[in-house]
Design brief:
CATH topology: Rossmann fold
Helix content: 40-55%
Order of helices and strands: EHEHHHEEHHEHEHEHEHHH
Radius of gyration: 17 Å
CATH class: Alpha Beta
């Protein structure tokens, strides 16, 4: 059965797109068939995988509004086992166009149901907001992975997002579960980072990944070359961390099957 994991956080700059791209890459490296879905109008995951969609280019937007089959929109990446359903700036208008459509909160779920059989994992990179596109990412997913930067307001933001997921499940009758919070841009030398990490683990036991993603120059540089960290700097600390995260995700999913 295909597992759909949405990467969500209403706050920008927390490593959401970096996580989506690199989780997809390492799951692919472990022999899984993976589709990376970019539904952020900024299209950072799309450009980070080496594609630069302009406003007029066809993207997931055309599938969401029913104008194109998602099968025709999928792009092969230069990473063998990973395909991409790209975003474009046109997605910025999708929220307005979807408002009057029946089942507007489940459009992405419908799109993915048409192509899911081809993949072991579908990774969705959602926008840094709690708008209609993010709600679509939540209702389409089996699990949500939440990147959290180790800073002062992280606890508040994480609590808000967990509450939002509960509201979406209750009001839209979806069954999205939280896979876990992922501590990103972590600097073990920082007293604040260590304190925030400790507090998050204390307040949300069982909801925090063992893996932490370090602050790493290679992770920041890789997207500008249209590459994942596995392609750009496979022996960096960032690559080792995302490899460990992918292993942790696979372990969680295998545990679910047994």
């Amino acid at each position: 059965m295909t597992r759909i994991i949405s990467i969500c956080n209403a706050k920008g700059g927390v490593g959401k797109t970096t996580t989506a791209m690199n989780v997809a890459a390492f799951l692919g490296a472990f022999g899984k068939r993976v589709l990376l879905v970019d539904i952020d109008p900024q299209a950072n995951a799309t450009s980070g995988m080496g594609f630069h969609n302009k406003r007029h280019d066809k993207s997931v937007y055309h599938a969401l509004i029913g104008k194109e089959s998602p099968e025709k929109l999928i792009k092969k990446t230069n990473f063998l086992a990973v395909d991409l359903l790209p975003a474009s700036p046109a997605l910025a208008g999708a929220s307005i166009e979807l408002v009057n459509m029946r089942g507007r909160e489940f459009k992405l779920k419908g799109v993915l149901s048409e192509i899911a059989r081809k993949y072991d994992f579908i990774i969705v990179d959602s926008p840094p907001s709690l708008g209609l596109l993010t709600i679509n990412a939540l209702t389409a997913a089996h699990k949500v992975l939440i990147p959290v930067q180790c800073e002062y307001y992280a606890l508040e933001g994480l609590a808000d997002l967990l509450h939002t997921i509960q509201l979406v499940n209750a009001n839209l009758k979806s069954r999205t579960a939280v896979m876990g919070a992922l501590l990103t841009m972590y600097d073990r030398k920082s007293k604040l980072h260590r304190a925030v990490a400790k507090e998050i683990r204390r307040k949300f036991p069982g909801y925090v990944f063992e893996t932490t993603i370090p602050r790493n120059v290679s992770l920041a540089e890789a997207p500008s070359f249209g590459k994942t960290i596995l392609q750009y700097s496979p022996y960096s600390h960032g690559a080792k961390a995302y490899r460990q995260l992918a292993e942790e995700i696979l372990k969680l999913e295998e545990g679910r099957k047994t």
